[in-house]
Amino acid sequence: MPELPEVETIRRRLCDGRAGCPRLVGRRIEGAWVGWARTLAEPAPPVFRRRVRGQTIERIERRAKHLLLGLSRDTLMIHLGMSGSLHLRRGRDRGATPRVRTRIHRVAEDPVRYCRLSLRLGDGWRLDFDDPRKFGRVRLVSDPTPVLRDIGPEPLSRGFTAAVLAARLRDHRRALKSLLLDQSFVAGVGNIYADEVLHRAGLHPRLRADRVTPAQARALWRAVRAVLREAIRWNGTTFDQVYGEGDFQRHLRVYQRTGRPCRRCGTPIRRIVVGQRGTHFCPRCQVGSPR
DNA sequence: CACGAGACCTGTTCGC
DNA sequence: TGCGAACAGGTCTCGT
């Protein structure tokens, strides 16, 4: 579930606390369990366990798709990758939970089967980082800025103006779709929202960035902000039945709607591959294809 | 240096 | 029903 709107939704939920769950801010980390070593980008697990213990969670922020937990001394950076999710759970320590090997492994039968890393929070609570595909990364650093150094502007910030976007577009010849996915170009846009943004802007995913007119750049700027804002308002998009609270999926115009009618003109939505990513668009509404 | 391809992972769905 | 192929919300690294 992890593009900017999803990560922002998670951030807000962790800040506010939820029914039956404690707020994260103010809680002390009593210990850590690492189930898949590569989930922890840095430092090495023994150092991580020693260093994170005793620190208090003081604030929760987001930059691009990174969740930043400001601790007493360090910053815990969490990137959910493709399939990562966070869960406040109560019960026995994850590390002490006996592995029940049933014949048929179904996700629903073992909620912590994909838990890769866990923080003990006291009162029996823990924060579990689940990640079936193991693309997510957690790091504990004294200074998060080097990791975030090459990330582009936050699309919902004041500094991200239409003029800034237009100027940046001129520097690239790549397909718009690829460029929107590039985190150094603009922060937080992923495959779902890149497609949705381009449809809203009426621009073909393969349109070369340096051929975007000023009027088109402005339309793209509006679309990026409108789509991301709206997605946040609906708590993101999710296809997960268990945490099916992201309602933006009901507002998708092209993503995973191959063959279904465009909501604007009725033309069947097409799926192509751009930059090795599945790309959905309306061949009638979205102009500017090369050739 | 900008860009594209392959790698990293596991699970689910599709097509024959 | 079975089995391989294709596909899935994201970055990294490497070669051109």
Average pLDDT rating: 92
User: Using only CA atoms, what is the Rg?
Assistant: 21 Å
Largest sheet, strands/sense/barrel: 5 strands, mixed
For the record, the count of structural domains works out to 2
- Level-2 CATH architecture of the largest domain: Alpha-Beta Barrel
Q: What string, H for helix and E for strand, traces the elements in order?
A: HEEHEEEEEEEHHHHHEE
CATH topology of the largest domain: N-terminal domain of MutM-like DNA repair proteins
Q: Estimate percent helicity.
A: 10-25%
| Unreliable residue stretches | 96-108
The percent range for strand residues is 15-25%
| SS summary, helix count | 7
- The strand order across the widest sheet is 2-9-5-4-3
Class from secondary-structure proportions: alpha+beta
